[in-house]
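[job 0417] fold request received: NADPH:quinone reductase-like Zn-dependent oxidoreductase
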Amino acid sequence: MTIPSTALQLRSLVQPDGTLQISLEPTPVPTPGPDEVLVQIQATPINPSDIGLLLGPADLSTVQVGGSAERPVVTARIPERAMPGMAARLGQSMPVGNEGAGLVVAAGSSPAAQALLGRTVALIGGAMYGQYRAMPAAQCLPLPAGTTAAEGASCFVNPLTALGMVETMKREGHTALVHTAAASNLGQMLNRICQNDGIGLVNIVRKPEQAALLREQGAQYVCDSSAPGFMAELTDALAATGATIAFDATGGGTLAGQILQCMEAAINRKATEYSRYGSAVHKQVYLYGHLDTRPTEIQRTFGMAWGVGGWLLFPFLQKIGNEAAQALRQRVAAELKTTFASHYARTVSLAGALSADAIAFYGPRNTGAKVLIDPSME
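[job 0417] inference complete; emitting structure tokens
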């Protein structure tokens, strides 16, 4: 194929006056170095972590789309109260997109790079919302024969996060876990992992239809936080599974505190004596998302043996080391079409991702609204 000298890349810019601008900018197509490959990106997902950089804290009700059909320009207002958090990126046009997949169309001279020429690979490393991306060959994951770019586009962030949660559970001495926003793509993956590996999992969702979806997929313990009996149902599930660690995607509001409260209540069902300090069993909630933008509220009704902290994938992978991280990646590659299969509500072009309709669809980060970008589409 003919490789152009320039190609489009989606970039996000926060201006000092509080205006967010998202546009498609022509950028030089790099020539791969000796140990690098050039990938024509054919599929790249819009993950919640991508939306954080793409849209920032912009008020979605202020979105306006200008420019042309081929080169749309999106603008939106960032609330004044959120601007201090944007100080480090003011005036910087930033590329977006954590992960993706596509065809290797050029390769450097090294044997490792040449071996990938013509292969479909998955990759992670930022700047994936563009038509081409150069990457070190060592950081590309060759997809199994017969696997499409769309099937491999989400094989890093969600799968490794789900596996990372299970690995964290094991390394910290817990035997079962809790997950919120559990009907998401990631949540469905975690449900399949736990079923395959015989691990107790308590799924927390926000709507009855989400609970029904997970039960149809074999989930045994599903609690709807909108139901009147949520706290009692959650306590029963925690008592049955013995789960003492949770991963909360909502971040804000009262849910983290409610989980700790129910964990304590479940543990105390087996208590043989009273302690004014609460149970000695450590209860841990990790916040790994911010779907609920309210402050995190914790009412301490669960003793002293507890913790709430943040959890992110990439620091976790660095912590466990390359060998352990590679073992997780190999499992993802082996189970890409089963355990780690992703599902998308829409596929759009780069320009299509910047339409007002598309932003209104994926911007709120609702379950079932996952979008895939195909930069090779017209």
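[job 0417] notes: The longest strand covers residues 36-46. Residues 37 and 107 are 4 Å apart (CA to CA).
[job 0417] exit 0
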